[in-house]
Amino acid sequence: MITESLKVFVTVIEQNSFSRAAEELFLSQPSVSLHIRNLENEFGAKLLHRSSRRLSLTPAGEALFRHAREILSHYDQAKSEINDLRHVVTGALKIGASFTIGEYVLPRFLAEVSENYPNVEVSVTIANTEEIAQLLHQNQLDIGIVEGQVSLPGIEEEPFMHDDMLLIVPNGHPLSKLSKVTPEDLQDQVWILRESGSGTRSFSDDLLKSLGVKINRSFVFSSNEGVKEAVINGLGITIVSRLVVHKEIAAKVIKTVPIKTKEKLQFSRKLSILHSQEPASSKAVGEFLEKLRLFEL
């Protein structure tokens, strides 16, 4: 179909490269070139100027590119509406998740529900909470699942589940010998932290501030695996989700120690589903939102 060639043409322009377009579309480079030649034959005009360094559009190419994206958008809408009439859920779904959820919750959710939607193409973006919220706000994602709270115009936030947060320490660390630790015990420790913008970092900062704990030295990692390995190897202590370390605790390669406080503090956090306040943009988005609302670990 000509829509396939139009999609190849648009991707070549957006990527400014035949080879990158081929990678993006899982095609060979000769196949990409054939699609462009077919379009040029169809319209009887040269569409692209190629040089060793860059691509540029001819006037005919500029006209086609301007209309091609609109044609493809209308085609996808028509296909979606027809599939809705046939009660078939199809299309592309872009889900974003913060690191803890993306690494330890979302794979299990997708494994449970994806068999029921074989015609839905799912792509997953894993980043910190702040980045996922911004991508959703920019319409680059359909659904976000994050830690902590998000407040952005046009974005709906729904409760997803609760996540227990734990203090973990290396085996052999002085704190590992205690049945409970006090805020005083946590002073002057080396802390392993996530990067700013992550839900885990936000929770840790708020908790340590509430406890009056001052951090004199810390190491910052941009992934849960980095944090976990740092603790296992004796670099320091941290506060992290139970989801991240439950296997390591069971294997006794690290230890969790309860924190004793005078005031009642929350040692769990809320996980949230984020989506547009507008009606679901496709049946796939609506179906996966409903499944997320019912999902339990």
Automatic annotation (TrEMBL):
Residues 1-58 form the HTH lysR-type domain. The keyword Transcription regulation applies. InterPro entries: LysR_HTH_N, LysR_subst-bd, WH-like_DNA-bd_sf, WH_DNA-bd_sf. CDD domains: PBP2_CysL_like. This is HTH-type transcriptional regulator CysL. The keyword Repressor does not apply. It comes from Desulfosporosinus acididurans. Keywords: DNA-binding, Transcription, Transcription regulation.
